[in-house]
């Protein structure tokens, strides 16, 4: 692991001097392709999307014990202040526009409550009464619009219960925040071979007054058949890396993921919130580079009209987009040449500023939609 971090950081420092060491993703200019291929039968459309806003769970758990209930109350208030129905409608708009065959959802947060709470006094009874869950609202909104999707895989990640103030007594309830990764499939897409797991590598937070608290992350995958072709579709959410510890955990998770898919014979479509900047010149951040070296192709760099030499055609003045933490990656074990990937249409979703809807240059993205064609030799 130390070697992986050292190599990754060294390569970032060397920058473009190491272009020759990159895998085929930076090889040659793509061949001319026809945009009409993207709208023929056989094209695959996928989406990766953060469903809920960041809860700052780790920062919450690091709060001193006597301040924890007040801080947890503020976090809960911020979550509940959001109009869930409005958010579900906005997400449904994105799905209706793209009509993806498969959707990987990250940060699928669920909030449950127990009243009165017992965690502050050493109790272990888990809160079960659901008070906030965006996913059912989204599924209902899709059905109303005649968009038929179903949940086909789910992995539970962090699951933490904390006390919150409910009165001046003081009195306390317990609030349980659970994070999931979920895969949705369109009704006409058959799936099998469902797999889910949590990474062995994970952060552990001291957790004031609660003892050490593990914050696991995981992945979910299915074998999906679209227009006669079968793919292994994988969705994940890697550990953020704001510091050296986070980077160590993130790299270890990426290594686990790469290893688990190494023997996969189907073409792999890997989506998710990778929390690794994908636009640091031609090299990229350490975790991003490890994924490229493992044979994965970042489809954003293969978009129609983008240039392979600029790390993915990043507009100037958009630092949030420049990080591009939400990625769609593909690997085809049947046909190694990425020039045979075919045309790719990709754009970002989830802008937090006023801008034309589905604008590719949105300044703060919570997801990516990609429509692509894998090589004909990938048929199953």
| Envelope shape | globular
Task: Let me know the largest β-sheet.
Answer: 7 strands, mixed
CATH class call: Alpha Beta
Q: Count the helices. How many?
A: 8
Q: From the 3D coordinates, which CATH architecture would you assign?
A: 4-Layer Sandwich
Oligomer: single chain
What is the number of domains? Answer: 1
Average predicted local confidence, pLDDT: 76
SS-based class: alpha+beta
Percent of residues in beta strands: 25-35%
Order of helices and strands: HEHHHEEHEEEEEEEHEHEHEEE
Rg on CA atoms, Å: 21 Å
Q: What is the CATH third-level topology name?
A: Deoxyribonuclease I, Chain A
Helix content: 10-25%
User: Which residues form runs of ≥5 with pLDDT under 50?
Assistant: 1-33, 307-322, 335-339, 352-364
The count of strands amounts to 15
Name of the CATH homologous superfamily: Endonuclease/exonuclease/phosphatase
Ends apart, CA distance between termini: 36 Å
Quick structural summary:
The chain contains 8 helices and 15 strands. The protein has helices at residues 2-14, 57-61, 68-81, 84-98, 134-144, 244-261, 286-293, 319-323; strands at residues 44-50, 102-114, 129-133, 149-167, 171-186, 191-198, 203-205, 213-215, 218-226, 229-237, 268-273, 297-298, 326-331, 344-349, 367-372. Strands 1, 2, 3, 4, 5, 14 and 15 form a 7-stranded mixed β-sheet that branches. A 6-stranded mixed β-sheet has the order 6-9-10-11-13-12, with no helix packed on it.
């Amino acid at each position: 692991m130390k070697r992986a971090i050292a190599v990754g950081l060294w390569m970032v420092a060397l920058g473009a001097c190491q272009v020759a060491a990159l895998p085929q993703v930076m090889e040659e200019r793509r061949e001319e392709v026809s945009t009409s291929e993207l709208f023929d039968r056989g094209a695959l459309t996928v989406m990766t999307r953060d469903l809920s806003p960041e809860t700052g769970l780790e920062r919450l758990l690091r709060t001193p014990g006597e301040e924890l209930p007040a801080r947890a109350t503020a976090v809960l208030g911020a979550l509940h202040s959001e109009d869930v129905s409005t958010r579900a409608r906005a997400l449904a708009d994105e799905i209706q526009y793209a009509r993806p065959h498969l959707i990987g959802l990250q940060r699928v947060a669920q909030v449950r409550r127990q009243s009165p709470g017992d965690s502050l006094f050493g109790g272990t009874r888990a809160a079960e009464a659901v008070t906030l869950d965006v996913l059912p609202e989204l599924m209902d909104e899709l059905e109303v619009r005649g968009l038929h999707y179903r949940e086909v895989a789910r992995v539970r990640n962090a699951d933490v219960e904390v006390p919150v103030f409910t009165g001046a007594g003081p009195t306390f309830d317990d609030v349980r925040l659970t994070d999931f990764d979920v895969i949705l499939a369109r009704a006409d897409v058959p799936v099998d071979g469902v797999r889910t797991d949590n990474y062995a590598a994970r952060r552990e937070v001291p957790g004031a007054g609660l003892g050490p608290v593990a914050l696991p992350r995981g992945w979910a995958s299915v074998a999906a058949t679209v227009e006669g072709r079968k793919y292994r579709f994988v969705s994940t959410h890697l550990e953020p890396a704001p510091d050296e510890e986070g980077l160590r955990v993130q790299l270890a998770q990426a290594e686990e993921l790469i290893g688990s898919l190494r023997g996969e014979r189907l073409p792999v479509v890997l989506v998710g919130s990778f929390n690794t900047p994908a636009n640091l010149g031609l090299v990229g951040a350490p975790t991003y580079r490890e994924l490229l070296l493992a044979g994965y192709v970042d489809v954003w760099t293969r978009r129609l009209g983008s240039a392979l030499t600029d790390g993915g055609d990043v507009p100037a003045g958009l630092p949030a987009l420049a990080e591009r933490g939400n990625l769609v990656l593909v690997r085809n074990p049947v046909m190694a040449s990425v020039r045979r990937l075919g045309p790719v249409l990709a754009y970002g979703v989830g802008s937090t500023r006023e801008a034309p809807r589905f604008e590719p240059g949105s300044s703060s993205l919570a997801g990516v939609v990609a429509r692509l064609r894998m090589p004909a030799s990938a048929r199953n």
